[in-house]
Design brief:
378 residues, mainly alpha, two-stranded antiparallel sheet, 15 helices, disordered C terminus
Length: 378
């Protein structure tokens, strides 16, 4: 069935804003500017400030929800389901997981390329699958186990590509690339914990997706903004790239923005794009399908890689292409994209019928592109 113009618009909006989210965060990292007082010019390395901006974007989804709700209530026959009342503190534990994972990934983005950052985030299906078996009692299908194994292979290939291309990359040291890649994978464990917490304690409540994203964004924005104060005094030595060598120097970030206003443009691009990405993603799931949303999220990785190459932010490496294709295959198997293809083959149709289909709600939770952390963030 052909897509309507509105569906095409939503798909394009999701693909565009999702790509801008990661690219704008990486763009901010590439600026150099003078800091406060007489500090010499240095790179903009403020991952926690960037994370605060990302949560501000998620928080704005709450405003979008109430605007849509008010508009819907003015209709003669309202069609929007606002959901039941709930305790907002239910979202606090997953919001803290989101905050921790997002912060770690922004630190990692300073150390590795944008394309590797996006590809390695595919590791989330490994930990989501394992934790869902351990804590939710879910039984994974054979195709999902195969998808997990293929995803592991894809991660190894992408990591190997980073190691082989590290010597050609003037912007990142080899040790930084390895550390960054490991941090990204470690963050996916926390993201998987977040997804399990949401499914176990949150999804049984009828909460509108925009309201859920906005509530988590509210908690993340408030808590991380307060944490910027003690971070200003925590010395971490050479691990930090700011002049005072503290965990996060928010004042230095604002001074650099004052000296180089283009940094503010990059940060605004990150904040605005995450809000539109979440809205477009939810709308794509509703208007088209959750499977389409997953495909678009995979295409986002390709767009980020192509744009990074075109801008000269990284060098081409054939192994990275192979790694992307293997990761794409693993994700497709895990999310059941092979079923429509097998269903068209008479001899394989029985294999599809033997596998129980997920409900739309369960499919949405299994799709790792369900919500953006760190750009998807994100």
């Amino acid at each position: 069935m052909a897509w309507t113009n509105y569906q095409l618009f939503l798909a394009g909006l999701m693909l565009t804003t999702g790509s801008i989210n990661t690219l704008s965060a990486k763009w901010a990292d590439m600026f150099s500017a003078q800091g406060c007082h007489d500090d010499p010019e240095h790179r903009f390395s403020h991952p926690f400030v960037q994370a605060v901006g990302m949560f501000l974007g998620e928080f704005s989804c709450l405003a979008v929800f109430y605007i849509l709700l008010c508009h819907d209530r003015r209709r003669p026959e309202p069609i929007m389901n606002p959901g039941q009342s709930f305790n907002p503190l239910l979202f606090f534990p997953p919001a803290m997981c989101d905050m921790t994972a997002t912060s770690i990934m922004y630190v990692a983005l300073n150390m590795t390329s944008a394309s590797s950052f996006q590809m390695l985030r595919g590791a989330v299906i490994i930990f989501t699958g394992l934790l869902s078996v351990a804590f939710l009692g879910r039984r994974l299908k054979s195709s999902q186990w195969i998808g997990i194994l293929i995803t592991i292979l894809g991660l190894v290939i992408v990591g190997l590509a980073d190691l082989l291309s590290g010597n050609k990359d003037d912007s990142h040291k080899m040790s930084d690339v390895i550390t960054g890649d490991l941090l990204i994978i470690m963050a996916q464990i926390i993201v998987a914990v977040q997804m399990v917490l949401e499914e176990k304690f949150v999804y049984k409540h009828d909460v509108h997706p925009l309201r859920a994203v906005g509530t988590e964004g509210f908690f993340g924005f408030i808590v991380l903004s307060l944490l910027l104060i003690p971070m200003y005094f925590i010395h971490v030595g050479n691990f930090s790239n700011n002049p005072r060598q503290v965990l996060e120097d928010a004042l230095d970030a604002f001074c650099q923005i004052g000296h180089q206003p283009m940094i503010l443009l990059a940060l605004l691009g990150n904040t605005v794009s995450i809000a539109f990405f979440n809205f477009a993603g939810i709308s794509v799931t509703k208007e088209i399908s959750a499977t389409t949303r997953m495909v678009l999220d995979s295409l986002r990785t390709l767009v980020i890689w192509v744009v990074s190459l075109a801008l000269g932010w990284e060098h081409f490496h054939g192994l990275q292409v192979l790694g992307f294709l293997v990761l794409l295959l693993g994700t497709a198997l895990y999310n059941g994209l092979h079923r429509p293809l097998l269903a068209r083959i008479p001899c394989c149709a029985g294999l599809v019928d033997s596998e129980e289909e997920h409900s739309p709600e369960e499919r949405e939770r299994l799709l790792t592109g369900g919500r953006e952390q760190a750009g998807d963030q994100s």
